[in-house]
Predict the 3D structure of the following.
Amino acid sequence: MITTLDVTVPAQLTLALVPDLVLMGGAMILLVWSALRPESDAHQRSVGVASIILAGITMVLVLAWANRYDAGPGPIAVDNFRWLVDIIVLLGTVFAIALSMDDNMRNGIRAAESHVLILLASSGMMLLAGARDLIIVFLGIELMSVAVYALAGLNRRSERSAEGALKYFLLGAFSTAFLLYGIALVYGATGTTNLQLIGGRVAMFALAGSPLLVAGVALMLIGFGFKVALVPFHMWAPDVYDGAPSAVTAYMAASVKAAAFAAFIRVWLEAFPYSYSAWHGALAGLAIITMIVGNAIGLQQRNIKRLLAYSSIAHAGYLMVAIAAASFQGSSAMLFYLLVYTLATFGAFAVVVALTRDGQEAVMIEDLTGLWSVRPWLAFAMAVLMLALLGFPIFGGAGFFAKWYVLEAALQAPVPQTTLAIVLVLTTVVSAGYYLYVVMVMFMRARPDGMPAPERAGGLTRMVLAITVVLILVLGVVPNGVANLARAGRPRIDVDPTLTTLPRRISTAPPDTAPRVADARAAEPNR
Amino acid sequence: MSAFLTSIGYQHWVLPALLVIPLAGALVIWVHGAVTRPRCAPGGDEVATGVAAAPRGWALATFAIEFVVSLGLWWSFDPGNTGWQSVVDWSWIPMWGIRFTLGIDGIAVMMVLLTTLIMLLAVGGSWTSIRARTHSYYALLLVLTAGMLGVFLALDLFLFYVMWEVMLVPMYFIIGIWGGERRIYASLKFFLYTMVGSMLMLAAIVYLGLAARDPATGLPNFNYDWILQHALVGSTTAKWLFGAFFLAFAVKVPMFPFHTWLPDAHVEAPTAGSVVLASIMLKLGTFGFIRLAVPLFPAAAMSPTIRSIILLLAVIGIVYGALVSLVQPDFKKLVAYSSVSHLGFVMLGIFALTVQSVQGALMVMINHGISTGALFFLIGMIYERRHTRLIDDYGGIARVVPMFAAMLTIVTFSSIGVPGTNGFVGEFLVLIGSFRTEPVFALVATTVVIISAAYLLWAIQRILFNSLDKPENEHVPDLNKRELAVLIPLVACIVWLGVYPAPVLRRMEGAATKFVSQVDARRDAMVTADAQSAPEVQP
């Protein structure tokens, strides 16, 4: 039995936020606990285990809430989209904490707070997943980012880590300013920060061409562009990804991106569907250069973390294609993609964690030479993950279906995105150049004499690797269940059904034909 | 025979079984390798240590079962029925309108039999030449087989694409790990060339599936027959879509400007890899034209401009391949380039679009698979003995290795197309058939038959018959029983198809006729529809 909540009532709003609140409250308690004892490896691990349990509890709550509650309009969404993003984020959280428990030991990081920071960032992400108000979006982004800024600088002994963290912080703050300014302008143009009301009013008053709104949308696009690392706002990504501890990098590359994209597409689908013509060109352009530049520069990389950084930039480009489709198909495709991308990214970084030696600054692709002959399972897993990121069927498992779904959404969009689809498939071929290079080095080059075999990876790392690879391969053969979930996970938009034929190009109507404000109020749902 | 097959329900399980058997065999070998791996040094000589015995034995057994199972198709296939036979149609991903649909027609049935035969022999050809990491090698060979058969059997375009890509990865590893000196370059080039074409084909397949979507549910539909009837696209769109399919298949065939991956891949691949590439994988390209590209877009494919461009490229390929072969010092490369020439005949036959020429094209596909496969086997066998492929390093070895010389001569005659061998039947039909519609191209192609005789005869003269002037050639052992067992079935096919090709032709005739009439009818219908400026149907 599904209860519909009225999230404008504080008590019911609280009920709608229970999973988020549990995570936040639990994180606070763990924060205190982690500060109570002196830093040690054992303490770090026990806080880590507790954090994983907390994330697990939250996931159970999310699943319970998904089948129990529903909500009308308001600042927080209670829909399948939110729950699915929550699950993807929490999955990433568990992986990230598990990996960092192993990685911290190796890097000599004993701060137990690192796990709590991940939990706090995740609660920000969960807030983003449910945000239906620009202020909540901002709140979620800040909550997530501040924790991640600290995580990026976790390795205090490493200069590169400090450099990356500072860069991330400065550019992050800069981009947040863009976002905030954009939010202000959108508010100025429409008089509201609620996504659905913005959408309704843009349609109602034919605001699509309003310079204020267009400027606001453009600034918000830049703000999101920084967060998800679109070209040309990607400059920070390779340095930060390279400097941060591998587990944190994986978390940034997968979960932070997933949450930012979730908020991105919700804002665009709910608030700006009627300004389609205003943003579509810019967004498609960003997608195209992101795909091209990300993949082209990826070809040059010899440091594996930087390679994965550029690969994640390229994937942001593919995900932009799903947003450019501006349809529910696009949002479903994005959910599916985010899940697979999260699995593949955490898997790939688990390999990096497994290969990192004590005191080694960076893992180069050459370190993988002939890996097949010394660590066949690791080489096999990495090959699967590379092919998954490449989007290859069967051997790359679900990676192919992710691309397939995006491609289908692009071609099935109300305005078919043929150009984007073609750029997507062609840049995928380019990306084969570097993904296959990794595979080639592992399998086709002989391991040089005297090159030591990598140490045996920690148990948690191996577990993460096994889970991700098996899930990717299984979903690569039977994706139907998850695809169904992804389709069910469309944002619920409670606007006038006559307005929901997305997207629609609206010409600027002369002012005297626009309905008066009072009429608009009447037309707004449930107000 | 067919009564027996019916009694065991052969029609209902044969096609999935053909895919499952090699995959199961691969799994067994892989698990065996994973369990016993600690016992052998990586990269060591596994034939000498006996580690190779289990994987190659398993592979041989699996391929033998596969061949026997597929052989039933010869009797169970009904030549009079031009529809799909032995169809299985299972739900796979209902969410995206994707089904697991397999079926065969007269063309596919011959290709399947060719594949299972060649793969069985390929194990024999790898028996002692693959010495390192044999578990992985034979497992990949089995997976590769499943992929190739899947392409021939798929009736769902999505499944077709998946199978098309699936066969790419095993081949990439086979060339890249067990290949020659420049194997890494060759394997990457092979992979990327194929992928450029196939990714565009993927976009085109999505587009078609959406164009043919079910009006009631809005789900795309990728069923071949359904798309043939319901995917209505405008003539401009059709040209673009045809271009995407064309690129995918033209790279694979390979047609003239897209052929540069072929010499590298063929030369660097291990013997069995070259055999599989030449005998089967190239046919997948021409099969794609016959199955998908031409029937789906007859108006685009057979529009005068596009058609003459393709015919021109085919004839350039025929001439160019032959001329380049003429000057090759490396025998393996010579045979590789001769493939470009032979596949040009296939393309000429398909696009000349008469029943005879299409049948001829199908025959050339089979013949090339047999004779070029045999040539690569022979090259591999002599290479194992002398470790050189340069023609100049040999000379007069017919006296030393008489069996080898006899086999090479017969196979060469077949490749040239001497009457009485299978090669003659195919090329003759193509030339006769295409002369009716495309006399100029047919004429040019005919002259090339002389060049092809020149390069091959000249090559075997230098290898087998000149004076025996190099001391290291004086003590080369002749073919052993295993090698003869690999070659004799192929030689038997050469003679059989050269003398009495009727059973094969009869099985393919229905499909060839259907192909030609269907393309003609659909082209006319589309041209008429276009003339009446029917509105373009957007998906």
In short: Residues 200 and 495 of chain A are 7 Å apart (CA to CA).
